[in-house]
Amino acid sequence: VDGKVQIPVVVNVLYRTTAENISLAQIQSQIDVLNKDFNAANSDFNSVPALFSGVKANVGISFVLDQVIRKSTTKTSWGTTDAMKKTTSGGLAPTSPTTKLNLWICTIGGGTLGYAQFPGGSSSTDGVAIDSKYLGTTGTATYPYNLGRTATHEVGHWMNLRHIWGDATCGSDLVSDTPTHNTANYGVPAYPHYSTCSGTPVEMTMNYMDYTDDRGMYMFSNGQKSRMAALFVSGGSRASFGI
Ligand code: ARG
Ligand code: ZN
Ligand code: CA
């Protein structure tokens, strides 16, 4: 997979206000962040603690902006039930979802920064929704979620990654080289932050699949990379994206 998977990205912008009709520069800033974060080229990658230097990953998947589709709407918020992905509810249907990653950029509401569909779901709703205030690094991108990491996290889900705490107290993310976390972490935890789970490991709070602020997350692990890579090989559930 290393360097061989290049994902075309279709960006669907649904706007009511001029602010929601985000600029191409803001969209491109997000593509740039995805390319850095998935290729160990992010400037904070060298902040990964020595404890995790053996497992920090260069995922080796790249992204290229394919097209931007814009639609004016009267909706003030879109929620998390895929309304933005359906023309019947005033949204935009995905473009070529088996060969392109579709992003929907709109106001989601309810405090949700973004949400993703895992592999194996309906292609008619496949992709990732990101609130326009948390996309990219410029324009309307809003602190502390103004470094494009919401999309990095959501694309992680789209590539089959679970939350690092396994969505349960001391739950499993099905990845063996990430420590067991107590629960979600927020803000930017001081290092080292100890888990109270079995063995009291140091938590990998700087992993993209935790819930910290954007500046607090800057790595995937090799185990997470393996889970993602498995999707794109022959027989994998995203094999249509090619290798
Ligand atoms: N689905 C999560 C939410 O909406 C995304 C969290 C992303 N975290 C971040 N630092 N950008 O809460
Ligand atoms: Zn998540
Ligand atoms: Ca784990």
Automatic annotation (TrEMBL):
Residues 114-230 form the Peptidase M43 pregnancy-associated plasma-A domain. The keyword ATP-binding does not apply. The keyword Transmembrane does not apply. It comes from the Bacteria. GO terms for molecular function: metallopeptidase activity. Keywords: Disulfide bond, Hydrolase, Metal-binding, Metalloprotease, Protease, Signal, Zinc. Belongs to the peptidase M43B family. This is Zinc metalloprotease. The lineage of its organism: Bacteria, Pseudomonadati, Bacteroidota, Flavobacteriia, Flavobacteriales.
